[in-house]
Specification:
With 73 residues, the protein is an alpha+beta fold. Helices cover 34% and strands 23% of the residues. The chain starts with a strand and ends with a helix. The model has no long low-confidence stretch (mean pLDDT 85).
Length: 73
């Protein structure tokens, strides 16, 4: 999935962060990663993710599901 599926901006550290989002295929999950002391990882099904994900990226998750389903057809 090389194409960008969404973008959004938010204020942080006194500036504006612009986020471009792409789909990626996960082939391995490491027990240790660079931000593991700051972030928790939670693997869940789509419907659960929609309930717990931040509002500003919920629409991106829904868009990702649509893109994946369209590619699989």
């Amino acid at each position: 999935f090389p194409e960008k599926i969404a973008s959004y901006e938010y204020e942080k550290w006194g500036g504006v962060c612009k986020i471009d989002m792409y789909l990626l295929k996960v082939t391995d999950i490491s027990d240790i990663w660079d931000e593991d002391i700051y972030r928790q990882r939670r693997i869940c099904i789509f419907d659960e993710a929609k309930q717990i994900i931040h509002k500003r990226v919920r629409d991106v998750l829904i868009k990702a599901d649509e893109v994946i389903n369209a590619k699989l057809k």
